[in-house]
Write a structure and sequence with these properties.
The chain contains 15 helices and no strands. It has 263 residues and is mainly α. The chain starts with 13 loop residues before the first helix and ends in a 17-residue tail after the last helix.
Length: 263
């Protein structure tokens, strides 16, 4: 039932969560279907319940997800994707950001962003997790900042054809520029942040035609681009005016991934 139902605000019995995480620990190939069912179930009960996220973490979900991320066979790609979604949702809780940052999760997330540029869903999940883990946590942002090529990579994804990928990438750039992260700001400037974000903010990178949800993602990406430009171009009357026109971004990181997952 949990593996197929819509995510809800219902609080799941912690013993049920403990059992699901226990199933996910299995390594027997014959148990792969049950592991995937358990992972999907946990993925679907995390988004809208803080109690479920806390209980899952206490049951060792983060360690289980890290083990899944280390598996490299093609058949594990779906499970890695779900593990990334779980980490993204766990990172919504402020107290869990430090634990996630102290693990190897950030290395995996950056690796997946680099290697899955053609997989929009994996990019969405990985960027959402990266943005959320970094939100308001300077140590995590500092770690991301020192990774080779990450600034150029994130800016390139601000031009991605998928609207949600663009928004998540722009959110990462925004977060990396916050909290007076001057070194990161300079790196983004060096790789052309101002012209890239200016095009995004002005709507020149919009695809459109994808329905109401895509229009929402497009507007949020434009708002995030403007908010970032206000940091990079201090005292710019142009971007202050654009910010007043477009409004404040609705989600400044830390929002849950609430996509229905299926086995």
């Amino acid at each position: 039932k949990l593996a197929t139902r819509r995510a809800s605000t219902e609080i799941t019995d912690p013993n049920v969560i403990k059992g699901l995480v226990g199933v996910m620990r299995g390594h027997d190939g014959e148990e792969r279907w049950r592991r995937k069912q358990a992972l999907v179930a946990v993925c679907n009960i995390l988004p809208d319940s803080r109690e479920n996220r806390e209980a899952a973490y206490e049951c060792g979900l983060l360690d289980v997800c890290l083990n899944l991320l280390s598996e490299t066979t093609n058949e594990d790609h779906k499970m890695r994707k779900l593990a990334v979604a779980c980490i993204s949702n766990l990172s919504v809780e402020p107290r869990l950001k430090k634990a996630i940052g102290a693990s190897h999760a950030l290395k995996y997330l950056i690796r997946f962003v680099r290697s899955n540029t053609g997989d929009a869903r994996m990019l969405q999940y990985s960027l959402a997790a990266l943005w959320s883990v970094c939100m308001g946590h300077k140590r995590n942002k500092a770690f991301v900042h020192i990774q080779t090529g990450v600034h150029e990579l994130l800016l390139s994804l601000c031009r991605h054809p998928d609207a949600l990928v663009r928004r998540q990438a722009c959110g990462c750039v925004y977060e990396m520029c916050c909290d007076n992260m001057k070194a990161a700001q300079e790196e983004f400037r060096y790789f052309g942040a101002e012209p890239t974000l200016s095009r995004l903010a002005s709507g020149k990178l919009d695809g459109g035609g994808g329905g109401e949800q895509e229009e929402i993602e497009i507007l949020e990406a434009r708002r995030l681009a403007v908010a970032t430009l206000q940091i990079l171009c201090k005292n710019s009357a142009e971007w202050k005016a654009a910010g007043r026109t477009l409004g404040t971004p609705k989600s400044m990181g830390g929002s849950v991934l609430s996509v229905d997952e299926k086995v």
